[in-house]
């Protein structure tokens, strides 16, 4: 859908520019971080340039292959289904290993390099072409004199500075908006006394988390509840106060008024984006932009709208790439961006650039400036112009070439919230964004065909797809998908509503099993369906639990949409487990191993525990009049965005 169609209120379109920085460094979408460097920016730039040219020269061929040797063997020597199932997994009923040739014949599939369905010569020709281009670029770079490189850097910096000036110029003051009181921002007290008591307990947990943060780590990003001191994640660079901003809307809906006011004062006086900070664009967007927007829509306090737009403007340089696919990391002072060094061939990550849409549409809505919406609508255009292997979206996309990186597909880490945002873009547009709806249901169809399997003992799970081969592992992160399938069920293609509700219920059950099969009754980071196990983590580095929300998130949607009491029961089990195993005197801590009998605290109280886990739990024990799903969309950090109603003007931008 064109931006104009989504945003009828805008009067002054602003252009976008080119620019950007170089890939390199260290970090990771919510779970890995970048460290400070001793080098000055220019030196760092030159080093990175030379280093990347060298790497490209040496390993160009490897980089531009769509996947590992495993996939290569899939491209060059199509594996037989028998062999594949024997070595990769034991498919249960409905879990048949897919033969590429058969699949091709059955569906008349589209292709791309690495896609087994594309003729071998085409694949090789494209790989060769990519390889040669990379070599040419690397050679050009190496032939440059140091002065030339220096000049290029200065030009690049100038370009970035100009772009930033232009972006800022578009935001001299925000237009007045009519704030419409939110619907269901506080609900009635549940009539059932037992439910009421449980809800109160969850509010008490929020108080415990909040007061300990306030006491030991006020103004810092997160709390170390065992050490009783602040915890700083490099995801936010030197931006501070992640827990405060993430907690604002939870404080509001729990009617913790004084605490909300003190958080608001902190935002007014201390939340500062004029810092030299390299941040994760995705994390800052979902937690800070999302948290501020949500606080604005609930309270009507202008400070939150101003701060959200101010931060949105700071993030715009991330889109200054040849394709407009944003960088993962951005220095919000210099405007220089780059990607995670571990990401395939310098790619941006699907779940990161695909999880900006909801917030950016609202930023345009509240600022009266279409630039934000244009940026995210361009991401759509790029995605729609690309061929998708088997209809699936790979996790990696190179922002320079606009082409896919490795053919890895996941509904968990690296992919997850991209799918969530397609569905929610449709719902948030008051069901006018038909393009989002189509993309969502097409993607879900492909996911069902290629990734969803049933274990031999009847547990439905979502596996990961690597160039056509399945890894029979499901992440805790993937558990959000149960709620997503159920939330989209109403608008499913004809006759499929029940099917999607059922699928949501099956995923909820599997994720509950992953909790139930541990000692602490909280689930591991990832669990497997191979080697004779089902819904159990087998690798030591997958046994941790970091207070994540996805399982209770799915319970919340399933409860709201079915009112099956088992979801309240399961949610209460999670509350009891959190109290027993994660609560310490200084707050709540994650665990290093959920199968261990003794405490294994990781000593971090994640900000999303207050933003998401406790909010979803509270909603499960509230009546449906609190934040009704017909009026609100939860961003991927559980922050609230109102549906942009086409009938009723929720927010009017004066023109
Ligand atoms: C949160 O920041 C968000 O839910 C994100 O989508 C995924 N990771 C964490 C919670 O696990």
From TrEMBL:
EC number: 3.2.1.-
Organism encoding this protein: Molossus molossus
Amino acid composition bias (Basic and acidic residues), ranges on this chain: 87-110
GO molecular function terms attached to this record: calcium ion binding; mannosyl-oligosaccharide 1,2-alpha-mannosidase activity
Region (Disordered): 84-119
Gene3D superfamilies: 1.50.10.10
Domain of life: Eukaryota
Binding, Ca(2+): 636
Location of this chain's protein in the cell: Endomembrane system
Alphabetic keyword roster: Calcium, Coiled coil, Disulfide bond, Glycosidase, Hydrolase, Membrane, Metal-binding, Signal-anchor, Transmembrane, Transmembrane helix
Any Gene Ontology CC annotation: Golgi membrane
Family: Belongs to the glycosyl hydrolase 47 family.
Pathway: Protein modification; protein glycosylation
Pfam families listed in its UniProt record: Glyco_hydro_47 (PF01532)
Function statement: Involved in the maturation of Asn-linked oligosaccharides. Progressively trim alpha-1,2-linked mannose residues from Man(9)GlcNAc(2) to produce Man(5)GlcNAc(2).
Disulfide-linked positions: 479-511
Active site residues according to the UniProt entry: 283 (proton donor), 416, 525 (proton donor), 550
Protein known as: alpha-1,2-Mannosidase
